[in-house]
Amino acid sequence: MKKQLLTLPLLAASAPVLAQDETTAGAEVLVGVPESIIIVEGLISTFTTDTYSSQTIVVDRNQRLENSLRPVPGLQQFRRSDARSANPTSQGITLRGLGGNASSRALLLLDGVPQADPFGGWISWPGYDALPIASARVQRGGGSGSNGQGALAGTIELVSADVGDRIELGAAYGSRNSVDADLLFGRELGRGQLTISASYARGDGFTPIVASQRGTVDRPAEYEQAGLAVRYVAPVSYTTELQTSVRVFTDDRERGFAFSENHNDGADASIRLVNRTTGDWQWSALGYVQIRNFDVSFGGVAADRNSVNRVFEQFNVPSIGLGGRFEVRPPVGDNAELRIGGDWRHTEGTTNENFFFLDNDTPRRSRRAGGNTSTYGAFVEGSVRAADNLTLTGGSRIDFWSIDDGFRREIELISPFPGSVRTDASFASRSGSEFTARGGIAFNANRQVTLRGAAYLGWRLPTINELFRPFRVGPDATAANEMLTPERVKGAELGLDWNDGRTKFGVTLFYNQLDDAIANVTLDSGPGVFPGVGFVSGAGVFRQRQNLDSVESKGIEIDTRFDLGALVEKLSLQASWSYVDAEVNASGLAAAVDQLRPAQIPEHEASASLDWSQENGTAASISVRYTGSRFEDDQNSRSLDGAFTVDGRLAYAVTEKLLIEGRVENLFDTEVQAAVSSSGIVERAFPRTFWVGLRAKIE
């Protein structure tokens, strides 16, 4: 796999990339300018009034992408840990309390390409640190319209930056022998733009288990990550542009004790043709491929945490995702817009596992499981300016899905019956269809105030991981379920936006009902041997992925921005808060979790940041964030405390081409609890970390 990843960048000069005009990069282009023309997904759009709750943030290249998104109200990963210490398979992303599952329930796009892992639906965050990303537009609320299935909680659109002629180097050294480095090279070649970017990060890491519970097996969780990306954009005619992209990444982490290593590789490529003709037919065509492979080991730690043994390993989990999309926008007049198109996505993957270890190197049994999924969809979306101050939007799509070639096979590896088959199951193919729709209204009461409302239907197909792959977290084991059905959401929201040029204020009330929500349901406690996972110790519990009746989520989101230039030039204040009241409705085997709160969903989250910056790069900022308490498990028997953290940054431009900076994460070293096991062992996330760095522009 590593050899394949290293050869892909050599093809980049002739391989395809996604790009977008720089006018989509900033938040200000997308907010409150209803008469402007902007580039959206590569095509010209005349409507910027949004009927959904949305927010566009400028991505800070000085911090990890997942941490740049933290201030968005209601946006969270399954666990609080970032990609330096979390297990890669726990890093799904969601919004509005529709969590309780490590697979993403928000649709993440990079220049129009879906980014969820083709096997498990989580996000490989280290793969984006090499990319020059200008902005992230977060649209809260389900229903994906033109973007396909997966947007149960919302859509996050990452937009690549237009770097021009530029060479930039950055390097930083931090606590625990941590190193971050990046390179950005941009060159205008003929009428095209070439961008090459790279990143590298490593650290000795921190010990995840809290100090009072550590034993001799506990140690720092080291990490090492790297990425390389190449994109080239060039016009092929006056109105048509070719956009190409290739990126590769590698990610090594440990979980803080022996036999807890995990490794994740990835490679993506995409190609798109975009035809932009003002006042005439527009069209775009996109094709992409994702390649992933990961391996992970699990260790069983003794109750006194003074010994550990390997209990399970997934030594090879390859997967691939393929997709395509075509869209046309016919001319329908100055006061309307129409989008018609279709898309296709195919995923396939296999997990190869060893378990029942007699010693740390000798497994007794092996398992191989996997399958593939496909979706085909067609959509139509429209918007119309019914009056100078009234915009209506609406759309629908039909999707056809299939789950095919599912299997699970287990064999004995050692005497007395080496090679004998313990399980050989093939699962019947299944298929179905889903109809979804959404609609919205935006009314400009005056030049400052916009009232908006929206209603939507959305859906998500279970991942190969959920259908066929079991997993372990500490002593707890969770079995797969090949009979899972798609998740479906229905919801509505009402909101108000105020924008007078210096002050922006948005408030949104929302309600969602996620039917057939996939959750990890507790069925029994160890010790014992359970189907699909094997032995579970007396310190662990046995769970299985199941469809719950529903998860209901309702709440409020507030986000504000104040331009304080009247007090101090270039000074701004941003703040956000979200409240989520979420509840599970369950029956049958899952009846024990009925009326309980979904795992990992806090009631309250809030953040605020004060930023001052100059054009030469000199800047100062301080950010505070509060995340409320939450339950670790579906039965609400274990809770994680709330946490208040403070981050800061100072940067000084020594010259026009040299910037020096200092940063701190979690200034007061707050204990941010990320997980708690059934035996009460607490794992923490990102402790206090200091950084000092340089950034240089060579030209």
| Backbone shape | globular
Mean pLDDT comes to 87
The top-level CATH class is Mainly Beta
**Total count of helical runs of at least 4 residues:** 4
**How far from one another are the termini?**
36 Å
Structural class: mainly beta
- Count of separate structural domains: 1
InterPro entries: Beta-barrel_TonB, Beta-barrel_TonB_sf, Plug_dom, Plug_dom_sf, TonB-dep_rcpt-like
GO molecular function, one term: siderophore uptake transmembrane transporter activity
Protein name: Outer membrane receptor proteins, mostly Fe transport
Subcellular location: Cell outer membrane
Task: Quickly describe the structure.
With 699 residues, the chain is mainly beta. Belongs to the TonB-dependent receptor family.
